[in-house]
């Protein structure tokens, strides 16, 4: 529980600060969340395969880094809220593009993260 909670606190802070920083450069808030989710998906893929290759502590990687830190760094709730907000704001096209690009790019990022450790 200590690994998950300490990783979660750190991930939430990283998400808060990076999200606010990225919002300076993007006109719409959903670009910041999309960027964070892609980076987080890549890191999850990378860390999952890193544990097997480098023989690192599976407990630390799984509970602190993946579930704690990256679980709170990436957030499906922010994604869900932003999609609903786009739909309610009559920005249906942006909402659909956001959903499709989130799923596509996050899966690709996770795959790349795993692939990097296979090389």
Any overview of this molecule?
The chain has one domain (2-116). The protein is built from five helices and no strands. The chain is 87% helix and 0% strand. The protein is globular, with a radius of gyration of 15 Å. With 119 residues, the chain is mainly alpha-helical. It starts with a helix and ends with a helix. The protein has helices spanning 2-25, 29-54, 58-73, 76-88, 92-116.
Element-level helix/strand string: HHHHH
Number of discrete helical segments: 5
The quaternary state of the protein chains shown equals: single chain
Going by helix content, strand content and strand pairing, the class is mainly alpha
Give the biggest beta sheet.
none
- General form: globular
């Amino acid at each position: 529980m200590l690994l998950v909670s300490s990783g979660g606190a750190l991930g939430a802070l990283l998400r808060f600060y990076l999200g606010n920083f990225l919002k300076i450069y993007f006109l719409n808030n959903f670009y910041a969340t999309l960027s964070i989710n892609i980076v987080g998906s890549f890191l999850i893929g990378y860390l999952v395969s890193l544990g097997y290759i480098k023989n690192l502590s599976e407990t630390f990687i799984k509970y602190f880094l993946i579930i704690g830190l990256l679980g709170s760094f990436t957030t499906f709730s922010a994604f869900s809220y932003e999609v609903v907000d786009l739909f309610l704001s009559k920005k249906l096209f942006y909402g659909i593009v956001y959903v499709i690009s989130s799923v596509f790019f996050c899966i690709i990022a996770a795959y790349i993260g795993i692939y990097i450790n296979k090389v």
